[in-house]
Amino acid sequence: MPFLLPCKQQELPARVNFSTAPAPAPAVPTALHSKMDELEGQLLAKVLALEKERVALSHSSQRQRQEVEKELDALQDRVAGLEHGSSAYSPPDAFKISIPIRNNYMYARVRKALPELYAFTVCMWLRSRSDGSGQGTPFSYSVPGQANEIVLLEAGQDPMELLINDKVAQLPLSLKDTGWHHICVAWTTRDGLWSAYQDGELQGSGENLAAWHPIKPHGILILGQEQDTLGGRFDATQAFVGDIAQFNLWDHALTPAQVLGIANCTGPLLGNVLPWEDKLVEAFGGAKKATFDVCKGRAKA
């Protein structure tokens, strides 16, 4: 019996050491919790992002509904006008640009870049106040490297001309009196086909005018002056004198019926590339912008 007591005293420290050995084990659940917290944060961020996207889509849908409602209101106003027996229409932006004297500083600039065009129709109302020395330049379109990308010009006693990429076609148009005239010129790069209308009637057509040449984009469109450089260097002898209204540009050739409808003020049609809008036309150098409905005012002096 005396020998058992020392053995128990030796075993006690061994049990204490064995029981304290697994102490690092709690570190495992701590790391797991940290990872779970991180994943939870990521999921929460994703939920918040999706919620923001849902709200943005809701606002976008609301704006689209408002735009549709605005268009419907405009159409209803048009229908109401027709129901009241109105045979003509009022352009949405009824104004004119007036250039009273021949000079090299009065003009209007269109504040919209054009895309590349493989065809176009340009229509406008013109009232010339020329002194007989030619109508000048109702409009010119220049691009970098080519001042005469599109130009409508009547210089001196020469016929009116359409220039495309410096190629020229003479047009059978006449604006010798002081009344309003509706002018349309259509062109397509395919075979260089062109057509010229005055007051709704086809006056002439031709081909091989800058055939297969696409109209270059991002140029400068000027009303009333001919550009010798991009956006400038005007020549007073080539300036237009008079009034310009309802200048519209399409990326295709209008049909004769469409042209006639515009000229007769029975077919409302705005350019799909360039519509005649007040915010897109800026007058310079003393050229005047004035409220004017050409369909109501063309019969006046």
From TrEMBL:
Its cofactor is Ca(2+). Keywords: Calcium, Coiled coil, Disulfide bond, Glycoprotein, Metal-binding. Pfam families: Pentaxin. Gene3D superfamilies: 2.60.120.200. InterPro entries: ConA-like_dom_sf, Neuronal_Pentraxin_Related, PTX_dom. GO terms for molecular function: metal ion binding. The keyword Coiled coil applies. Residues 58-85 form a coiled coil. The keyword Disulfide bond applies. Residues 93-295 form the Pentraxin (PTX) domain. This is Pentraxin (PTX) domain-containing protein. It comes from Gulo gulo. The lineage of its organism: Eukaryota, Metazoa, Chordata, Craniata, Vertebrata.
